[in-house]
Amino acid sequence: NEINGRRQSNLIVKAGGAALGLVALLYTDHIRGTTTYQTQAQALGQFLVAIQMPSGNILSKYDVDREKWSEWQSDYYPGEALGALGLLQRTYPHAEVEDAIHKLMIYLANRWHLENESGGKRIKACDHWSLIALEMCWPHFKDEKLAPLTSPGKDVWTRDRLLKEAIHYCRDELNFLVKEGEQTGALGTGNLGIAANSTRLEGIQAV
Fold this sequence. Notes:
59% helix; mainly alpha
């Protein structure tokens, strides 16, 4: 808990930060053509796998001083973690990582499905990370690993169904953008602002 000899208070470990750090390490080695950060990258991957819950979601924040996980859950850390683990699986394949990305993808796909069915928004903005992660993990998904993760009484999850739900989710996001912009005339602010729209389109483009 010390940095440069000074004690730091309120240290928080964020799963999203760990995921983006993992991506940075993997891309750094890729660009340099080295394996300098292989050990650190695999350790971060093991951390993300270890904090996955039975639902497929991951824990979000760990309070170091209190030595406990926060009850707060991020809407976007799961997508960041999925993308990072997909890149790790592409670089250093491992059975545990393969299992983890299937479970995490189905958690996120079930959330897409609920939004697609209800026509309403369950989170405050487009989950572009989950769409980017779908593209990054796509080569690793296998129907035989997706199917057993299907909820009882629901349509079986397959690669084809994943893609269809993602396309539906993207279409709803575009419809939301047009509808809200027409009704409020506020295109360019808030959830319709430049940053929100840029990330929304980044996710849609990935699909």
